[in-house]
Amino acid sequence: MASTTTAKRFHHDLRSLADGYGVLCLIAERKASVMARHSGHGTRSVAPIPLNLGAWQLRQDIDRLVESLATAIGLRYRHMDTVSLLKGIMRYEPRLLNRPDMPAIVELTRQAAIRLDRTLNPPPETKMIGWCPACGFELRCDELELKSGYKACDRCSGEYRIKDIQRASMLRLAVGGSRGTAAEISRLLQPWGIDIKSNTISHWGARGLIQPVGMDGERPVFLVWDVWQAHVRKDG
């Protein structure tokens, strides 16, 4: 049985997710014209990768969490959007708080609410580089941390090499075959603390360090993963 304090915090976290989800979607859906993949005969995909990958990933995580909560209380959620589903869940909070796995439910909801707050109200002068491999907490770096090359997790205190965290983030893109022009990839990577100028990417292409996988008009299109690999090799 949850304490009164825990119940109030859980309700507050659910309310925060419902109130902030719409704004999160607006942030996540700012589109860059970086293609998820090319389909048959080199045609362009109709679904570009969202510019703010951190917000996009958080939205997916919240969707999965909310569906899990709905399943736990037997709430039918087909054809319901996430905000409507959250409001429905809030009507059945006691069912969740009386479950044996209540501590895990409360903690997962708390972490989602914290991540949402950090996305909507990010600490000043920081960049989101990825997620802690130990606890999954969002990792943000200021300029000094980026220059140092290492980041300690604010949640579990584990310390990691920033390039390793960024590499894991880039693997998310590699799985989808993400690609774009030099300018598009440069813009995509900047919010992740990865500063690669579009001229540099074009230069790598001209030297054959990375190979184009298509054309966007007269502009060559490169894989994001290939650009990242060239960047890592350059920095040793």
Shape: elongated
Strand content: 15-25%
Order of helices and strands: HEEEEHHHHEEHEEHEHHEEH
| Residue share in helix | 40-55%
- Structural Rg: 20 Å
Tally of extended strands? Answer: 11
User: What are the low-pLDDT stretches, counting only 5+ consecutive residues below 50?
Assistant: 31-50
Distance between the termini: 54 Å
Physical arrangement of strands within the biggest beta sheet: 9-11-10
Mean pLDDT: 84
Global structural class: alpha+beta
Put simply, the count of helices is 10
Please describe the biggest sheet, giving its number of strands, its sense, and whether it closes into a barrel: 3 strands, antiparallel
Descriptive notes:
By secondary structure, this protein is an alpha+beta fold. Helix content is 54%, strand content 16%. A three-stranded antiparallel sheet has the order 9-11-10. Helix 1 packs across helix 5, helix 2 (53-72) packs antiparallel against helix 5 (102-120) and helix 8 (182-189) packs across helix 9 (198-207). The longest helix has 25 residues, at 4-28. Residues 31-50 have low confidence and may be disordered.
